[in-house]
Structure formats: C-alpha cells, structure tokens
Write a structure and sequence with these properties.
The chain contains ten helices and no strands. The chain is mostly helical. It has a domain of about 130 residues: Tetracycline Repressor, domain 2. The chain is globular, with a radius of gyration of 18 Å. The N and C termini lie far apart (about 40 Å). Keywords: DNA-binding, Transcription, Transcription regulation. It comes from Cystobacter ferrugineus. GO terms for molecular function: DNA binding.
Amino acid sequence: MRHPPEQKSPSREKLVRASASLAKQQGFAGSGVDALASAAGLTSGAFYRHFKGKDEMLSAIVETELEATRGRFSTIEPRNEEQLLRAIDAYLSLAHVRHPESGCVLPTLASEIGRAPARTKKVFERALSELMAVLSDKVGDSSVAFSLLNQCVGAVMIARGLATDDAKHEVLAAARKSVRDGIASLRMRSPPKGTP
C-alpha cells in the first residue's frame, strides 16, 4: 500500500502508532482527540493538522495495523506448518491477551469498526483482503485461512473478557487445538510428496 507523501511525516506516523496503542488498550470510541494526541506527546492542534477527525484517524489505524500484521505473516514460508503454528501459538498466548496495546487490532477494534462510517469499513475491507491474501498463501487454502483467523481473533476476544487465567488458558488451548486440527486436515488432503 503506497501512502501519499503527506502521510509519511514522522509526527503523523508517531500519532497513528501511539493512538493505535491507546485505542487497542482503552477502546477507540472512548478515547477523545486530546487523549489520542497526548499518547503521542502531541497536542490536539497537531492531531487536526494530520486528520480531519477521529473517523479519519480510525481508518489510518486500521490500515497501518493490518499492514503490520500482514508484514509479520509474510515472513512465514508458504505451507511451512512449523512456522505457521509458531506464529499462531504466539497469537493465542496469554501475553497477547494481557497486552492488547501491542497486539493485533482485530480483537480490540473490529466491533468499533463495525460502527464506523462506510469509508472506514472500506479501508478495513481492503486491508483485511490484503492480509487474507497473504494468509491464504501461507496456509494453502483461503477458506481454511479465514477459519483460522476467525478462531484466533474470537478466542483472544473471549479470553480478554474472562476473569481468571485458568479460564483464559482453557479458551486459548481449545483454539490452538482447533487450529491444529484445521491445518492437519489440509495435510491429509494434500497428495503425498512425489505423487504426480
């Protein structure tokens, strides 16, 4: 995704990164412009130099965060089960549950994006489509890739709502097993090596 030159300024990027971290931790709707700007050590005036309003900021967060997620998954070799499971285990970890500010945007902000204007939803749809193209390449099947994404995001969302670590572990372990079963089913469908 190519950004216009005016969208590459260091203060804008710093503002998007800091706002994303705050929004993933405390929610986007409940974070005012002053709080979003302050998270980056900037003023609300600086915010409005880069964004017309919060909706535009949410679009920038969605695009930047999903681009970063796509970048992390793009380092996995296609159909390398070991690398894929390592990445999924990290996603389905207690550390990811406990630290939304440094984690994936999907479990924290998907519901808020659902209430956003159509323009933001279009940015989300395009960025998610680009992420899914990468995941589908790594997994080898687009429907299984979508299923894995849905399971992982849902499990993290549910785990974050639970009070005890035992309950969180149970949800995450069930998701890890389901993901492994899905990947194993792909292996069983693949022809043996050397088969024409």
